[in-house]
Structure prediction request, 274 residues.
Amino acid sequence: MTPTLFGFLRLFAQLGILVFALCPSLTADEVHLLGTPRLEMGTNQIVIRWSTDQQAGTSVLFGPVTERPTRRIKGKVGTSHAVELPGLEPGIRYRVILGTARNPLQTNEFVLPSGTVSSPTVVPLAVIIPIHPAATTTGTTSNTIAWHSDSKVQLAKSELDSATASVVAQPNAPPARETWSHPDTVQDHFRRHGADFHARDTEEYAAKAWRFRQQAAASGFLVKKDKKGVLRIYDPASDTFGAYNPDGATRTFFKPGKKGYFDHQPGKLVKLHE
Prediction:
């Protein structure tokens, strides 16, 4: 190899490294938020959960809105993200910026209700404080966040109770023979998985599976759709999984209890419309 050719190849390689460093967007897909982030309030902990359309790092920056957020917590790489927020006080308005290890995905505010939470409660974070619209200039979206006024925060606090009530509300479900894909198999599914949902009989078990499908869009659950139109729905907060035919009939309903189970399911991630 001649010295001139060798020098040319070396220069070409150096330019390739430079492009890789300066333009990471050319080498990696952009990460997007799926569904609505949720705040899980328990008796001893507050956890924020969200999902992304591809594997990404986990990062949360948070603090009182009266100060610049400085408390950062990082988590594992995955598509289902969860971070416990320690040291929060009732009645204080907090700002939380969630995202990947490199980039923020969304900014929200929330106020913890006063009083003791008797049982774990999961509420869409956007219901507590609606997602902040980004300011726009000349038709492009900027990173400037329009924060809510105190009046809207007070309104959002009152919405917390109604949002919780809507989550708890249980719509009437059709009988199992109408909602289950193969009614002759529902007894076997109940025997194996009914205890996961404290179901007393096959009808209650099938009804819970039907409601899970109905609430999927509004609750921001993860959804995959395969080539046959089968929907596979997963709620990371409760570790609940359900599979449904294109006509809505339930194929199965259970708690995987296995990390990464949904990630290995067939199909592409989709968004359901309410």
User: Anything to note?
Assistant: Residues 103 and 140 are 19 Å apart (CA to CA). The two ends are 65 Å apart (CA to CA). The helical segments are 3-22, 125-128, 150-168, 176-179, 186-193, 202-219. Residues 33-168 form a domain with the Immunoglobulin-like fold (CATH 2.60.40.10).
